[in-house]
């Protein structure tokens, strides 16, 4: 197992359990205790965990796994969801994309759509995600608009009041939201309140709102609310979604697409 794969696995285990012992982690990953100690020390130096005697705990109370360590989680589901979301967007539309692993896959799916290979522009993409803008900026047929703001290293998203000036001046055909939680009663949510605020503005400027979320996000709550479920028009998720949860979203008025 490569170091990067080990680090992803360790951080995933920490998020799930809150605490890991060296011997426990070594047994789970089938490597030596000395290797785990080095990994813990290096991750602690990057402030991605807190070292304890004999192990490690998550960094802070509201721990958020950095984006670069989330890309492998539910990857195939996210790619299917992204393809379906991309199919809901028409040539020539103005589309808002929030940050996140699933919306990054949506950007990649849009980039390879044959009917978006040309146009003036083929698509206008408004985003606060630096990594999404970076991937799409090399496509001359896409018009890319960045919101401005201060970059969050966990998610590569621009946040803060500097984005308000841009978003108050535009109108979108669709906003595609990546969320960490979606619940019928509590709505769509993010870990960070500044991210949630930008995402909320994108929703307010859009004619329709599409949530792209794998089944692990459904029925969950998170710290910062983005919007109520009645703001959302379409939910695109995977076929592992709990049928009762799907039924609840449909009864709340959402169109649910499972792929």
Keywords, separated by commas or semicolons:
alpha/beta, three-stranded antiparallel beta sheet, globular, seven-stranded parallel beta sheet, 259 residues
Textual characterization of the structure:
It is a single chain. With 259 residues, the chain is of the alpha/beta class. Helix content is 35%, strand content 25%. Strand 7 and strand 8 form a beta hairpin. The longest helix is centred in the first third of the chain and has 15 residues. It is globular, with a radius of gyration of 19 Å.
Short note summarizing the structure:
The protein has nine helices and 15 strands.
Topology:
Layout lengths: L2 H15 L1 E3 H8 L3 H13 L3 E4 L2 E4 L16 H12 L7 E4 L3 H11 L11 E5 L2 H7 L5 E5 L3 E3 L4 E3 L4 H4 L4 E7 L2 E3 L3 E4 L2 H12 L1 E7 L11 E4 L6 E4 L5 H9 L3 E4 L1
Parallel strand pairs: 4-5, 4-9, 5-6, 9-12, 12-14, 14-15
Antiparallel strand pairs: 1-3, 2-3, 7-8, 10-11, 11-13
How many beta strands in the DSSP annotation? Answer: 15
Specify the structural class.
alpha/beta
Total number of helices: 9
- Any low-confidence stretches, pLDDT <50, length ≥5? none
Helix content: 25-40%
Report Rg.
19 Å
The largest sheet has its strands arranged as: 6-5-4-9-12-14-15
SSE string: HEHHEEHEHEHEEEHEEEHEEEHE
User: Main sheet?
Assistant: 7 strands, parallel
Range of strand content: 15-25%
What is the first-to-last residue Cα distance?
A: 31 Å
Tell the overall outline.
Answer: globular
């Amino acid at each position: 197992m490569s170091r990067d794969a080990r680090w992803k696995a360790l951080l995933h285990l920490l998020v799930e359990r809150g605490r890991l012992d060296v011997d426990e982690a070594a047994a789970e990953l089938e490597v030596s205790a000395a290797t785990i100690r080095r990994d813990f020390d290096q991750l602690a130096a990057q402030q991605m965990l807190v070292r304890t005697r004999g192990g490690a705990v998550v960094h802070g109370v509201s721990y958020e796994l950095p984006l670069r360590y989330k890309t492998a989680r539910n990857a195939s589901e996210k790619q299917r969801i992204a393809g379906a979301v991309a199919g809901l967007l028409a040539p020539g539309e103005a589309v808002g994309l929030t940050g996140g692993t699933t919306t990054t896959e949506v950007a990649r799916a849009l980039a390879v759509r044959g009917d978006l290979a040309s146009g003036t522009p083929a698509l206008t993409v408004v985003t606060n995600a630096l990594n999404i803008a970076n991937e799409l900026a090399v496509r001359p047929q896409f018009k890319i608009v960045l919101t401005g703001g201060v970059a969050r290293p966990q998610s590569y998203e621009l946040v803060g009041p500097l984005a308000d000036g841009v978003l108050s001046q535009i109108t979108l055909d669709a906003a595609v939201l990546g969320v960490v939680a979606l619940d019928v009663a509590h709505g769509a949510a993010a870990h960070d309140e500044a991210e949630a605020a930008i995402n909320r503005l994108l929703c307010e400027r859009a004619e329709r709102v599409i949530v792209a979320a794998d089944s692990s996000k459904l029925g969950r709550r998170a710290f910062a609310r983005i919007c109520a479920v009645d703001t959302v028009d379409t939910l695109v998720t995977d076929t592992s979604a709990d049928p009762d949860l799907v039924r609840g979203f449909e009864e709340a008025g959402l169109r649910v697409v499972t792929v």
